[in-house]
Amino acid sequence: MKKETEENILSSLQNEKDLEERRITFSARLISCLEGKKKSFNKKNKSKIKIEQLKEVYVKGVCSDNQDLNLNGLARVNMFLRMKEQKMMGVISAKIKTKEKLSGLILESENLQNPNEPLDISDAWVPQEEDLEQTKADIKKYKLNLDFTSVDELYLEPYKQIQLNWE
Question: Hey, where are the domains in the chain?
Fold first, then answer.
């Protein structure tokens, strides 16, 4: 009985280790995919999109739905790049003046967005068929097959060197 318990524990630990290795591999492949998209887009459009932007768009896509998170994240990246290339997006924040204080009575205070932060209208945007087709090709090309339940399971944060004080 004790031997079976030890074997179950060892098997469970091995499964955890295997899952963590798959997450690391997937994350590295995803970053590679996003880097390739960034380089290609910047070269083609003489632009300066950064990898951090694409990671942010990916995370927003993953968080937008509860099914096939990776497909949603990559489709949103492809949609973002397509729209950016077609100049359907622009910087309009300079034209928008935010008020420092709310003026007037607001009855629906539960769902208020901070008035000093810009409104994100991209939440309602849905990738088109061409975005999904490109996403499926990307998944195949970069071997991005991993089912995960949260973006927190991935390794997308940039490397930060640890500062040590040796006093």
Answer: 2-90+120-153
